[in-house]
Amino acid sequence: MEYKELIRMALDYRKRSYSPYSNFKVGAGVLFTSGKIYGGCNIENAAFGPTNCAERTAIFKGISEGETRIEAIAVVGSLEEYTYPCGVCRQVISEFGDQNVKVIIAKSEEDYIVKSMGEILPGTFTKVDLENNNK
């Protein structure tokens, strides 16, 4: 997989961010195992609780279209510092992926790092884990 394609999508969706409260724009591009890619941006709300992160927006778009497994995800927030997925997004990524999902944390197409889900969220708790523990 060419990571730059996912990063470009994340950069594009970052521009679509609705973040009038934090002024912190985030975009994401998610590659599912089917080969389809979905993008998302963060969407804030005055009540803050209903706010949705870019990663979850993109993942939920894919899942709602019938996708089931994530292969990789790119995240772009700050263009000066690496922006990692929040804890909630890490849990959602792990729900629809595994410890090998590639997480591309980017500032630009040329400046990025790649981590696995296992590196950024060790010891996951998912439906698959529950099923394996009940055997």
UniProtKB/TrEMBL annotation:
GO terms for molecular function: cytidine deaminase activity; identical protein binding; zinc ion binding. It is an enzyme of class 3 (hydrolase). The active site is at E55. Keywords: Hydrolase, Metal-binding, Zinc. The keyword Phosphoprotein does not apply. GO terms for cellular component: cytosol. This is Cytidine deaminase. It comes from Clostridium uliginosum.
